[in-house]
Amino acid sequence: MPGLKYLFVIAIDEYEDDYYPNLHNAKIDAGRLIKILTKAYGFKLVCAPIFDKRASRANIIEAVNSLIASTNREDSLLIYFAGHGELHQQTGGGYWVPHEATQRVSSWVSNSTLMELVGAITARHILIISDSCFSGTLCEMYRGAEERHYTKIEQMRSRWVLSSGRIEKVSDGQAGAGSPFANALIGFLEKNDNRTFSFSEMAAQVLKVTGISANQQPMFGALNKWGHEGGQIVFRRDDEHSVTQKEDDELLKVVVPYRVALDLKKVGVKTKSIFGYYGDPSSPMVKAFCGSERFLCWAYTYDELAALIPHEIEVDENTYLATDQGYDRLDSQDIEARYLHAEVTFQKTFVIDTPYMAICRCDGRMVAFSITEDGKYRNLIRWGINHADTAGQMLLALFEEKKVDVSN
Fold this sequence. Notes:
Elements: E1 5-11, H1 26-40, E2 43-45, E3 50-51, H2 57-70, E4 76-82, E5 85-87, E6 94-96, E7 109-110, H3 111-118, E8 125-131, H4 150-155, E9 158-163, H5 180-191, E10 196-198, H6 199-213, E11 219-222, E12 234-236, H7 239-252, H8 258-266, E13 275-278, E14 285-288, E15 295-298, H9 302-306, E16 320-322, E17 327-329, H10 332-338, E18 342-348, E19 356-362, E20 365-371, E21 377-379, E22 381-384, H11 387-400
Parallel strand pairs: 1-2, 1-3, 1-4, 4-8, 8-9
Antiparallel strand pairs: 5-6, 6-7, 9-11, 10-12, 13-14, 13-15, 16-17, 16-20, 18-19, 19-20, 19-22, 20-21
Helix pairs in contact: 1-5, 2-3, 5-6, 8-11
C-alpha cells in the first residue's frame, strides 16, 4: 500500500542578533512551496510550518526528532529549510542558523545533529531541500542517478539532498520576489509539462535555471551513509490543478507583487482594481475580483497604477539632478524660466531578476527630491519583476516625497 507524502517546513526571515541581517523571502518562498506541493502533488504538512521566532535551536531539533514517530516505512518526507547557513572554517562542517543564534558555534544547528536524527526516520523516501548559505556541505559527491522506470525507483529507499549552492554564500533575491533557487524550484513544480517526474529530473532543471540566473550553483547528492538504496521520490501532479495554476501564473505577470500591494494598502491607496489577492497571506492567490470573502488586498495592474502618477511632477529649489560627478541643485529662476518639471518613464532592461525599471527624470536627468540624514541622495529609480511592480514602487516613493496624493 503506497504511503503518504509529508512536508516539513522551516523558514526564517527575522533574526535576533544583528550579526545576521533579516532576510526577505524565506517565508514567502516557503508559502509558495507549501501551496504547490499540497494543492498539486498530494503532500500534506506533517506539522505547522516553523517560522521566525518559533525556529529556535531547541524547537528545530525537537521538531526534526518528532519526525521519527510521525512517519512510517511506506511514507515519503520532504524537509525544507530557508534561512541563514554557516560554515565552520576549521572543520568544514555546515550548520543551519536558528532565529536566536549568535556568532557562537554552539548556537547553530549542525549537519551532524540533523543527519543523526534523519538517519533514524524510517520513511521510504527522504528529500532535504536547503536554501541557505553553505548548504552544499550537506551533500555527498554526486555520481549520477541510475534512471529506471518510475515504479522501480519508487520501490527502493532513498535519501537525497538538494542544496541552493555549493560551499558558498547564496542570494536571498530582491525583497518579495523570491530567491533565485526557490524561483527555479517552484517554477519547475508549477510549470513543467510532465505529469510525472523523478527527483533527479527536477533537480537537474533547478541546477540549470539557478546557475543561469544567479551567481551560485546548486547541487544534489545521495546520503549513502544514511540509508540510501538507489531509489528516488516520484512527483505526480494533479492535472486539474494545472489549469488553475497556469491562470494564476499569467495574472502574476501583469499585477503588482503581493509585498508591494500590501504597502500600497498601508499608505491608503483608495483606487480599486479588477484583480485582487485572496486566501492565505503566506501563499496568496491572484484572481479577478470576486467579493470580500478571503480578500487580502487589491492586485493592481500597471495601467491602474500609472494613472495615479502625475504626468508632470512639481520640482523646486530642493530638487537635485544627477550628474557624472554627483548632483546639481535646481535654481528657482531656472525652473521658472524653462518651465521645468519631472516625469516618470518606464522601460525594460537586461537585468535578469528585475528586468523592468521606472525612473523619474527632470531635464533628462535622474531626480532626487531629498537627502538622507547621512548625506545620501534618494534617487527615484526603481527595479521590478514587471511594469506593475515598478509603477507600484515608484508611486510609493513619490508618496513618501509628498509628490502624489493617493487618497482620492
